[in-house]
Amino acid sequence: MYTQSMDTMGKDGDASPASAQPALRSAEDLQRQERFDARIDGGDFIEAKDWMPDDYRKTLLRQISQHAHSEIVGMLPEGNWVTRAPTLKRKAILLAKIQDEGGHGLYLYAAAETLGSSRDQLLDALHTGKAKYSSIFNYPTLTWADIGTIGWLVDGAAIMNQVPICRCSYAPYARAMIRVCREESFHQRQGYDSLLVMMQNGTAAQKAMVQDAVNRWWWPCLMMFGPHDADSTHSEQSMRWGIKRISNDDLRQKFVDATVQQAQVLGVTLPDPDLKWNEERQHFDFGTIAWDEFWRVVGGDGPCNSERLAMRVKAWDDGAWVRDAALAYAAKQHTEQQAA
Ligand SMILES: [Fe+2]
Ligand SMILES: [Fe+2]
Q: Considering 49, 83, 183, 333, which has the largest number of Cβ atoms within 10 A of its Cβ?
């Protein structure tokens, strides 16, 4: 799913801002840089084999790998509910959605690998806590309504974030996002449908459960768009490079505007007393985001950070025999082909 605050620094401050670019080394480099800038300005796509500045490569590698990590960590809170889905239909839908997220991780790791980092290096950064993933997955899934709410709001926010990345200047990332966005659309609809069934046909307790889930997820979802534009360290450079097309605040506003009516149809209240239509701006105004909470969760101190990371590392360790078997099989096939 889920690019979010992808312009927040890694723990080691791994992405140097453009201002820290080293001096260009030669006239040839200068020419390459000029050609690259002209292609970006002309709206051209950059392919893996094309020359690109180091900082462009690093920024993309950080963003795409954080995005890939978010896809596979995002499988964990939903995975908790596979055995507790209320019907066979809901279980099948949830399994399909979680499997999609694994697929999104695969496309994105493959796109990140085109920038020169190996899959093992990328996963090692995740498993050692060096790499970031979306802070939204550090919140717990307490009831079945959380699963519908994740589909509606979290995947809904992901779509808002990701549709503009289909036009990202780095072609392998843009191509991956086209397919991802189609699948995210299904994720959003299944979540909304699941909540609608409970709100229209459910008991009072089920309706209250939906409202409680929306109360808990609404604000963390608004945080998914990252810090305010003024506080967003890498946004400006990413916009100039055509990696980012719409600013954090504009995307957040689009999400709020699109979601208010959906909440009305659903019959839930969004937990923000300041949420109201502004005739002059032609947008909904909304309240102040608790940025201290956002930075705390990004920094590793959210409700489930350590649990998610431990689960992810366990899954990796438990899967070692599968990777070993696949490699042994591939080696055997290779030997047999050579002998034939
Ligand atoms: Fe999704
Ligand atoms: Fe996804």
A: 183
| Ligand located closest to 105 CA | 2
To the nearest 10 degrees (0 to 180), the angle between helices 155-162 and 248-266 is 140
Can you spell out the DSSP letters for 198-249?
Answer: HHHHS-HHHHHHHHHHHHHHHHHHHHTT-S-GGG-TTHHHHHHTTS--S-HH
- Cα 340 to middle of ligand 1, angstroms: 45
- Express each pLDDT in 224-281 by its tens digit: 999 999 888 778 889 899 998 899 999 999 999 999 999 999 999 999 999 999 999 9
Q: Nearest CA to 45 among 252, 242, 250?
A: 242
State the ligand closest to the CA atom of 186: 1
For residue 197, the CA-to-ligand 2 centroid distance in Å is 24
Angle at 202 (CA atoms; ends 197, 206), nearest 5 degrees = 105
CA of residue 99 to ligand 2 center, whole Å: 9
Q: What spacing in Å lies between the alpha carbon of 187 and ligand 1's midpoint? A: 5
The answer to whether 159 and 185 have CB atoms below 8 angstroms apart is yes
Give the amino acid at 297. Answer: V
The CA distances from residue 28 to 19, 35, 44, 65, in Å, are 21, 11, 21, 30
Q: Is the confidence at residue 4, as pLDDT, over 60?
A: no
pLDDT at residue 202 in the model: 97
**Which ranges of 128-170 does DSSP label H, i.e. alpha helix?**
144-149, 155-162
* Ligand 1 centroid from CA 67, angstroms: 12
What was the pLDDT predicted at 340?
Answer: 82
